[in-house]
Predict the structure.
Amino acid sequence: MTFDFALAWTSLPALLNGAWMTVLITVSVMAVGAVLGFGMCLVRMSRNRALAAIGAAYVAVFRGAPSIVLLYLVYAGLPQLSIVRDTPLWLLFASPLFCAILGLGLNHSAYVVEILRGGLSAVPAGPVEAALALGLPPRIVFVKVRLPMAVRYGLKAYQNEVLIFLKSTVAVGAVTIADLTGAANEIFAMTYDPFTPLVTAGAMYWLLTNGLRLGFEALDRRLNRHLAATVPDRRPATVRRSRPGLSLFRQPLVRRLPAKPAARETH
Amino acid sequence: MGLLAYGADGYGDELLDGALVTVQLAVFSYLLAAILGTLMAVLTLKPHGLRWMIGRVYASVATGIPSLLVIFLLYYGGTEIVHALLAPFGVEERPAIPPMAAAVAALTFVYTPYLADLLRSALQNVPKGQLEAAEVLSVPRRQIWLKVLLPQALRIAYPGFVNIWVVLLKDTALVSLAGLTDLIAAAKVASGSTREPFLFYGVVVVFFILFSAATIRLANRQSRRLDRGVRASEA
Amino acid sequence: MGPALPIPTPTPAPQGAGTRLRTRAAIELRDLRKRYGEQEVLRGVTLTVERGEKIVLCGPSGSGKSTLIRCINGLERHDGGTIAVNGVTLEADGRGVQDVRREVGMVFQHFNLFPHMTVLENCTFAPRQALGLSAAAAAERAMHHLARVRIADQAGKFPAQLSGGQQQRVAIARALCMDPRIMLFDEPTSALDPEMVAEVLQVMEELAAQGMTMLCVTHEMGFARHVADRCVFLDGGEIVEQAGAERFFVAPESDRLKRFLRQMLH
């Protein structure tokens, strides 16, 4: 059980290649999740009962299913449909990378729906009414008042979700993509040294998650600078930051619960 | 639907065996993590000193890397790790580590700090008066912990604990990549040979949704019992 | 008293869904009705507010006074009767609401400033978005009104950095930036610490002195005596009594008002 620095050095390019794939997938999934999540959140919160039910089903299925299963479904399942097989869509679904981003994106977007919905419903009526009373059109009130406040409320939960799904990108190995974990595995298969590649890969993951976390915390400080004063935090207790500030050994928290106890969440 | 039948023609028995592996894995890992997490919470209660620092480093590592990586590490390197741990005591053993043990150990390693953190902040939220009241009644220290502080902290941490359970349950899905024949692996084999991915992966999705829903229901019923004697707050 | 400022000259209301009536009243309510499920909150309120008139609306909690003024700018939809603001009718289905809101400014009990915007942004937001003013023009207008409520020096701060009284004065300035011809106040001092009430009331009194049409829900009797042309007592969703301030407080007629005033003094 030794760490082989020479091996770590020579395998660095391969691991960095894998890390690049992990980053690429993470960023793409965040983009897909933001777009799909925002759209489906509007569907989920629609006054139309049928639409809202579709939104709820979307969340239940894509949040309840482990992401690896969604990957298999997209990669192995969708090409069986003739609409995919017999049209140019086939070109997209033949790409494991596309399938991975779509599969993880569906899972991630379902969490985004719930985070955004939680944020939107946490926005107090007061500022929204004030904006309406000023004669602003409802669309502007939503975009400029309700949404910015909701984003601030949801930022912490979103951070937790992104950190968790970054770690869940290891599932892309299931559809033959060589990400950081895949690269480490390959080096193990060649050298029969499990420790050096896996520990090096672990260090890279640690840097990625913590870098992302520090980025989120900087964003949080920027967006919430209006609360930086000494005035007590009046936001609802559920969205208050538990321990503000920058500390390297703070652990990312956990995703919200699916299904019913939506009001109960950690921090 | 005959494909889901039990026996040689269907994949019902394979799927059921796989589901059993998934459930066992989740339950064992969670129970171990809960026990070790409680221990860790109590040991790292004061936010300073060596124990706390070690706890923070461990938590940072465990929560900063994917659990699959830890599973691989323990699966491929477990024999060597056990050997290295036993060698100082003069035991020269190189036991083979079964995949199930590696997976349970890895998930326990990853989820212990999550549960510890929940319980620690819950312990810090138990009113100080509770400890003082028990002390002035000269209740023994062990009893204060077991009968006064931990039960109250558990009630506070309960929703978070349920939360982690669901996250862990879904995280077990990755073990198929390390060669364990869990529900996912069974579904993969079945869909590969029958070319019915929707059917089999659909079954998996339904299993995960229903199983987490059922356990959450159970947990909520339990939480109402824990809430006995507590006045509901305004929210 | 602050500097006297010209009252914005009335311009014809924009033609929209609302219909323009021939009337001189600023607000005209006829038989206004509103119910929440089973409960009837307003049971036929008829009230006319003339241009430039200052009216104080009071009554026990749950009497419907907040609902009444929230109906006037369409934050609540009324179920029956008619509402006309500067001749623009507000339909029960919400037609005309944007036109009415351009005419009417509102100040809330809990200020309701936009927490993520600075004081200045709070004031320039609506003029820029709803009136299409340029950033510079909106800022100039905002600074003018912030100076009017004596808080121009805080323009760069966020609401959370201000005291309650300061926040409420910003809220008044924010409403004034839309050049409303009528101001509604919904218990503007009820959420304030006692030492901050005076600074807000003073701004309101100055506004009154400059000729603004005002409809205020408030229990500040000193303010009512100084400023109100008429006091209206609402109880159980109907107007029980209305009179000039002096007679209202000194010689109330109905028993309900007498009882209410007795409780107020305690």
In short: Residues 12-43 of chain B form the longest helix (32 residues). Chain B touches chain A through 58 residues (CB under 8 Å). The helical segments of chain B are 12-43, 50-64, 67-86, 99-125, 128-136, 141-171, 183-194, 197-226.
